[in-house]
Amino acid sequence: MTEPQISVVVPVHNERDNIAPLVGEITAALRGRLPFEIVYVDDHSADDSLAVLRALKAGVPELRVLHHVAQSGQSAAVRTGVKAARAPWIATLDGDGQNDPADIPKLVAAREAADPQVKLFAGWRVDRQDSGSKRWASRWANRIRCRLLRDETPDTGCGIKLFEREVFLDLPYFDHMHRYLPALVQRAGWKTVSVPVAHRARTSGVSKYNNLGRALVGIRDLRGVAWLIARSHRTRVEEF
């Protein structure tokens, strides 16, 4: 099998009705463009998401299926997928179908045109299809995060991203880290770029988050990431 140039990592928890349509869209977006693989990570779903994934494998040769034996959260699932990925670059998508896989080639094109120092291309949902309360909460969270972390990223909560695998695995890991990737990548000495992408309404399943719970966790995480940035120190290395 040809080595993939890109690994599409999709974490899922109780998304059985969204899996097959999203897999179909990923293959439609990437087949014939570049070698790829799809790495689904089932985070110990209580529904039959795992059974759906295992059945799909027979007809989708690019699909790989990993399973957490205990629920561990989205950041853990993303990291599991990235560690297992065979490609040097990773694209991530949320498993709820709200990210459009057709935007992956757009991120790849942005990478090909960018400075080599850019190691993260973050999706930016310019026309969000969420409830008013969720949009309001995200808008304020982004303003607070930008002011505190100075990551100059308008939308860190967007699930579709493209980044270099090696850079990601060199970042400090903690629960919910996937929401702070631009700041963490910049802390490591690399550049990031935000790319406008599509956003779709959820058509099946239910959201795993609520505004209050996300806000309470976010305050603690923001303080932690700010501490990491304040304590960071990079040293140039020369080899002779």
Compact description:
It is built from eight helices and seven strands. With 240 residues, the protein is of the alpha/beta class.
Folded structure, characterized:
This protein is an alpha/beta fold. It has one domain: Spore Coat Polysaccharide Biosynthesis Protein SpsA, Chain A (Alpha-Beta Complex), CATH 3.90.550.10. The protein has helices at 16-30, 49-56, 74-84, 104-113, 132-149, 165-169, 181-187, 211-230, and strands spanning 6-12, 36-42, 63-67, 89-92, 118-125, 161-164, 191-197.
Q: Which H/E pattern describes the elements?
A: EHEHEHEHEHEHHEH
Largest beta sheet, briefly?
Answer: 7 strands, mixed
**Beta-strand proportion:** 15-25%
User: Which geometry do the CA atoms define?
Assistant: globular
CATH superfamily: Spore Coat Polysaccharide Biosynthesis Protein SpsA, Chain A
Mean pLDDT: 89
The strands making up the biggest β-sheet line up spatially as 3-2-1-4-6-5-7
The secondary-structure class comes to: alpha/beta
> The CATH topology, please?
Spore Coat Polysaccharide Biosynthesis Protein SpsA, Chain A
Quickly give the CATH architecture: Alpha-Beta Complex
GO molecular function, one term: undecaprenyl-phosphate 4-deoxy-4-formamido-L-arabinose transferase activity
Organism: Pseudoxanthomonas suwonensis (strain 11-1)
Domain Glycosyltransferase 2-like: 7-168
Protein name: Glycosyl transferase family 2
List keywords for this structure.
Spore Coat Polysaccharide Biosynthesis Protein SpsA, Chain A, alpha/beta, 240 residues
List strands and helices in order, with pairings.
Blueprint (H helix, E strand, L loop, with lengths): L5 E7 L3 H15 L5 E7 L6 H8 L6 E5 L6 H11 L4 E4 L11 H10 L4 E8 L6 H18 L11 E4 H5 L11 H7 L3 E7 L13 H20 L10
Parallel strand pairs: 1-2, 1-4, 2-3, 5-7
Antiparallel strand pairs: 4-6, 5-6
Helix pairs in contact: 1-2, 5-8
